[in-house]
Write the structure tokens for this entry.
Amino acid sequence: MRFRKQKETAYLADPDVKCMLEVKKGDRDAFEILMRKYYPRILNFAYRFLGNRQLAEDLTQDVFMKVYKSARRYRPRSKFHTWLYTIAKNSCLNEVRRNRGQMVSLDEPIMSDEHVLKKEISDRHADPAGEFLQKEKKALIRTAINDLPKNQRIAVILRRYESFSYAEIAATLNVTDKAVKSLLSRAKVNLKNKLAGTIDLD
Amino acid sequence: MDCHEIKKLIPLYLDHELSAADYQQIEEHLLKCADCRTEARAIEKSWDLLGEIKAVEPDPNYMARFWQSVDAQMPWYAKIYKNVQTVFPQRRWVPALAGAVIVVLISTIATVQYLQKPHAVAVLTELDEAEMEMVANIDLAEHYEVIHELDFFSDFEIIENLSGLETL
């Protein structure tokens, strides 16, 4: 009990934890601060993991709903962002399990939702061949990420796009630091092997 | 360490996640081994390439959408509580509010009672002597109708036997 108390106070320096404790008291403004800070990040985490924009948006709404509903029982037992990403990660894994076999991948044209499509059309420059190659390259990169085993994929997204430290990835995935080292090493080699065959890496 | 072992550690080397000794060893090896250098560059380059996948912007209405679903999922009592909360944002006012409601309720009842008093007094003063006597003798009140109708002297006997009337 005493240990838990000590552990809880250890995270009180985290401004996000303080914010969450305000949410616990019923402060909606405090929750909006957290949402403004993390909604885009969780959305992109989900988008890069699931490969579907709409699915990612719905999932992000769900993640924040879970966080909001759990506010009343909230106890700071970790840094806020690792806790948040753990919820997001579990939601992503559940989503994949639920939609097994009918996942739409990032590289399919359906993925370019209207917003992005319009943007791409307006950005069209005088080099359609170059543009095509650029698109092709992106599709290959997306496929390379999608083909990684789930845990490697999560570790890569957290490291590459969210700038997580190895320790933070370990906390989010609930594995040891050593396991993260192994996951990321294998993932990097896998990505190199996938991309080296299709894109000139020199 | 041979090239095979070095290659296994290159990803961690690139992330600066090795002990100082291992880091040094790999750095020295890379200076003299072109094959491992190519491997390191390829891993670094493919990692950099992931940056080509740009971030997407959230739906502009994401915040409104969120609060809408929060409100939609609220049970009815929580909705009432929330409305009370918006009127009285600070919880410590709730007991004061409850107290005020009780005070207002009691004083309303007292005022109504008080305002009815002159009317009650007026009713009493309008009573004639016989009726006054009857009021004084509240035991007879239940027989008010009988008393009111009767011719006092001739029916005196009846009054004497009033209790007997109940059996009729």
User: Anything to note?
Assistant: Chain B has a mean pLDDT of 83. The radius of gyration of chain B is 49 Å. The CA atoms of residues 2 and 29 of chain B lie 9 Å apart. The first helix of chain B runs from residue 3 to 14.
